[in-house]
């Protein structure tokens, strides 16, 4: 959309409208306050759109929508609204735009970087009522969903079609929320992240304009038409618009699945195995790394008995013949690197238990220190640099007396330290904060990123500048100023 149109529709003052987009963004980056009289007016307007039951001012509801699963404190919005259609989202956005009220989109609240906190007050758009699977095209391997549909909900809907959606961040997150943070997870090494699996998005901009990033109804598997607006909004964390529909790629359910666990004498040996498996062309579906502290915690929490050593959890998808080939090659590589014999999960129940143990890593880490809280770091580095970064990170943890078992999507070079801390101990909180800064900069120093899948949110804005540099950040600010000149969309996040 042209900047001129947004200037006119936003009714910027003549002086501001003559400034550059970045300067406009800076000028309009201000505090917001909903005065009681204004609040009464907007609540009445909201109710005319979504009805009395579609608006909540209750403290409990507001607090539920002011926090995700991160360590960032709860920052409740002034109002929570529950739209049921894109038309209602657009109408509500127009009201907010007129009154200069911040808009904070909310899916399931499973984010890990404080992305839903209303740092400047405003209106939370809770999208859970929009929970329909709209268009399924099994012959074309795609589906369109509303923002309230979760990944588990979609796969349950698909259970009789022979198809599935494989992106799995662990939590039963909303699919549009996953798109907003460019989520990935355990299957990304084979099936990609949300960035590779979103074909089209319907987005409501800050002024209520509805756009379709690839054209209305378009669902081609590939395109080279124009700028890639879809990927502009994937990973935008609600700062550019409200995602109200997503068209997604689907995949055929694999004929066969095999899962295994293998322990190694060192982190280097585990990562070497991963690199060689990928270099050998094995289309491995999942390859997850857990350090000795993490596997010990998982053993305790899930009543397992895996060796307490650097460990890989692996999964293979394919026909029976293909599985035999994949497994044979991977076993040979693992043995050459000093790996143990594979411990197989050879039926669905055992596989479910194995992967439940991996997905429960968060709770297993918390169980190491009952009564404490957890914070998940998230960096991604080139595969060849992962061993040194993990070893340096473990030394840093020990040196500073911190609890932080490590788990990661080693096939992507993405790993997490699950920091367990006492939030009432200011010294420990400070040490954890300093550690996470060092970890992120350690990743940047080896040409990695400060976030592989959780997003920037509140806590990594300064690191984003270090990662992309001031000129790229200025381009981002210009895009933000063009699409949201009043800085209403989830202000205070990312930039």
Give an account of the 3D structure.
This protein has about 500 residues and is of the alpha+beta class. The chain has helices at about 5-10, 15, 20-25, 35-50, 60-65, 85-100, 150-155, 175-180, 190, 195, 230-235, 265-280, 290-300, 320-335, 350-360, 360-365, 385-400, 425-445, 460-485, and strands at about 55, 80, 105, 125, 135, 140-145, 165, 200-205, 210, 240-250, 250, 255-265, 285-290, 310-320, 345, 375, 380, 405-410, 415-420. The strands form four sheets. Strands 12, 13, 14, 15, 16, 17, 18 and 19 form an eight-stranded antiparallel beta sheet that branches. Strands 5-6-10-8-9 form a five-stranded antiparallel beta sheet. Strands 1-2-4-3 form a four-stranded mixed beta sheet. A hairpin with a 5-residue loop joins β8 (about 200-205) and β9 (about 210). α3 packs across α19, α4 packs antiparallel against α6 and α12 (about 265-280) crosses α14.
């Amino acid at each position: 959309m042209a900047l001129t149109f947004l200037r006119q529709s936003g009714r910027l003052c003549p002086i501001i409208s003559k400034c550059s987009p970045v300067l406009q963004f800076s000028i309009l980056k201000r505090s917001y306050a909903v005065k009681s009289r204004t609040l009464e007016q907007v609540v009445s307007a909201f109710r005319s759109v979504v009805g009395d039951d579609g608006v909540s001012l209750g403290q409990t509801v507001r607090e539920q929508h002011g926090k995700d699963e991160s360590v960032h404190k709860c920052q409740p919005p002034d109002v929570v609204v529950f739209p049921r259609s894109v038309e209602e989202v657009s109408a509500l956005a127009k009201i907010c735009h007129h009154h200069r009220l911040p808009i904070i989109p909310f899916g399931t609240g499973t984010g890990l970087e404080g992305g839903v906190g209303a740092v400047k007050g405003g209106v939370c758009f809770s999208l859970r009522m929009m929970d329909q699977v709209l268009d399924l095209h099994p012959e074309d391997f795609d589906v369109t969903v509303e923002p309230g549909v979760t990944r588990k909900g979609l796969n349950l809907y698909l259970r009789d079609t022979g198809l599935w959606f494989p992106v799995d961040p662990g939590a039963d997150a909303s699919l549009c929320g996953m798109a907003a943070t460019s989520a990935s997870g355990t299957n990304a090494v084979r099936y990609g992240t949300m960035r590779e699996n979103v074909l089209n998005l319907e987005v409501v901009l800050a002024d209520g304009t509805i756009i379709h990033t690839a054209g209305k109804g378009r669902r081609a598997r590939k395109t080279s038409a124009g700028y890639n607006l879809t990927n502009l909004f994937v990973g935008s964390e609600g700062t550019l618009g409200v995602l109200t529909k997503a068209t997604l790629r689907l995949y055929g359910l694999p004929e066969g699945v095999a899962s295994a666990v293998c322990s190694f004498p060192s982190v280097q040996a585990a990562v070497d195995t991963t690199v060689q498996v990928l270099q050998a062309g094995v289309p491995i579906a999942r390859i997850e790394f857990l350090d000795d502290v993490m596997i010990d915690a998982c053993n305790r929490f899930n009543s397992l008995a895996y060796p307490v050593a650097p460990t890989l959890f692996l999964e293979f998808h394919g026909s029976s013949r293909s599985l035999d080939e994949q497994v044979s090659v991977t076993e040979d590589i693992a043995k050459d690197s000093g790996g143990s014999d594979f411990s197989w999960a050879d039926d669905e129940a055992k596989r479910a238990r194995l992967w439940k143990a991996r997905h429960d890593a968060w709770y297993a880490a918390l169980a190491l220190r009952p009564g404490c809280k957890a914070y998940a770091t998230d960096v991604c580095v080139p595969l060849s640099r992962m061993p040194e970064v993990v070893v340096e990170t473990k030394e840093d943890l020990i040196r500073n007396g911190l609890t932080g078992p490590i788990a990661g999507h080693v096939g992507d070079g993405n790993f997490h330290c699950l920091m367990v801390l006492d939030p009432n101990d200011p010294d420990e909180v400070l040490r954890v904060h300093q550690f996470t800064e060092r970890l992120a900069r350690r990743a940047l120093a080896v040409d990695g990123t400060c976030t592989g899948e959780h997003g920037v949110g509140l806590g990594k804005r300064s690191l984003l500048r270090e990662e992309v540099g001031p000129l790229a950040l200025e381009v981002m600010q210009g895009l933000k100023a063009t699409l949201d000149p009043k800085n209403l969309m989830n202000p205070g996040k990312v930039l």
